[in-house]
Amino acid sequence: MKNFGIFLLLCFLNISINSVIFAQDEDNRLPTKFGENSGNTSRGTLTGKVTLRGLDPSLPKPAVFVLVLLNGVFMDRRQVFDNGNYSIPNVPRENVTVAIEVNGAEVGKQPLPPSLIGTMRQDFDIDLSQGQNAAGKTGVVSAKSLYSRSDENEKLFEKAIAASKDTKPDKAINLFKQSVANDPKDFVAWTELGTLYFRNNKSSEAEIAYLKALELKPDFIVALSNLGRVYLVENKPENSINILTVAVETDPVSANAQHLLGEAYLQIKKGSKAVVHLYEALRLAPIEKAEIHLRLASLYNGAGLKEKAVEEYKQFLEKVSKHPDKEKIEKYIKENSPKN
Q: 116-149 pLDDT, tens per residue?
C-alpha cells in the first residue's frame, strides 16, 4: 500500500504547501494540518529518576534535563536534581513522550503510558558508554556527542540553559555568547545559541551558530537537523535537502531528520521522495510523529485520493484519541469512507 501511495503522490507534485502552519518551539517547528497539540486531556504530575552510567568521573558533572513532548511538540523542560530525581507538574496523561538531555544532547526517549489518576512516573537508566542500543532504535546517542567543559564554563552553560526558559531570551543569548567566547570549541553551546536565535526569529544568526557547531563537529545530529529546519522555514529547500541528507546518513534513526527531509522534498514538489522519509519518520517514532498522518492525509485529499486520506486520518485517531479537531476528522472520515 505504501508503494502505491508513493506512486500516486507523483500525481500531485504541483500542490502548494505555502499554507502550512509551523509550530514555534525549538525542536518541533514542523508543519501540521489541524493543530499542534491536544490540550483537552487531564493532567497530573510526572516524576521519576534519571540514572546515568558510563560517566567519566574525572570530568565535571553534566547538566541533565527532562523534556516533555505532547504529540511530538515541545511542552516543558526541567533540570534534574543532583540526586537524579525530577518532578514536572501539569503534564497531560496521554500522548506524551519524555526525553532526556545530557549537556544539550538527547540520550534517551520514552513514550509515557496513559494514566487516568495519580502521579505519573517514568525512570531512565542510561549507559552513555554503549551508544545506540543493539536494535538501533531512536533514543540513545553516543557519549562522543557530549562536551567536557571547565567548572567555570559548566556553571555558565547551566545558567544559560536555565535562562533559555525565560520569557526574555536576551539573557540566555548573552550567556551562551559568553560561553562560546570563553570556549569557542564548545559545539553544544553553539548549537544551543543557534536554537535560541531560531526561536526568536533570527534565522541568519541561527544559521551562523549552527554552521560553527558543525565546523567543530560535522556529525552532530542536533545541529544538522536544526540547520536543516532553518533552511526549511526560510524557504531554501535545496539547502535544507543538502544538510538533512547528511543528517539522515549520519543518524538514519533520527525521526526528526527524516521528517524534516520529507518536508524539504515537498517544498520542491518531489512527493515520491518526500513520502519515503515521512513514512520512515512514522516508523521510527509512531507516537511522537503521529501528526505526520495529518500531513499525508492533507496531501492525499489535495490529490483527490479521499480513501487514502481516510486511512491516514484513521491511523492518526488510533494514536491520538483526543485532539482539538477530532470531530472534524471524524466527519471527514464518515463523509469520504467507501460506501458498502
A: 666 788 888 887 765 433 233 333 333 334 677 8
**pLDDT digit string (tens) for 330-339?**
999 999 998 7
Side-chain-side CA neighbours of residue 14 (13 Å) = 1
Check if the beta carbon of residue 136 is closer than 8 Å to that of residue 122.
Answer: no
Neighbours of 3 (CB within 10 A): 8
Cα torsion 33, 39, 40, 45: sign: positive
Tell which residue, 30, 316, 288, has the closest CA to residue 329. 316
> Residue 78 burial by CB count (10 A; 0-12/13-18/19+): exposed, middle or buried?
middle
- N residues, the chain: 340
- Fill in the amino acid letter for 193: L
Q: What is the value of pTM for the model shown?
A: 0.65
DSSP for 7-62, written as a single string: HHHGGGTT---TT-EE--SSS---EESS-S--TTS-EEEEEEEEEEES--TTSPPP
Q: Taking the chain, what is the end-to-end CA distance rounded to the nearest angstrom?
A: 21
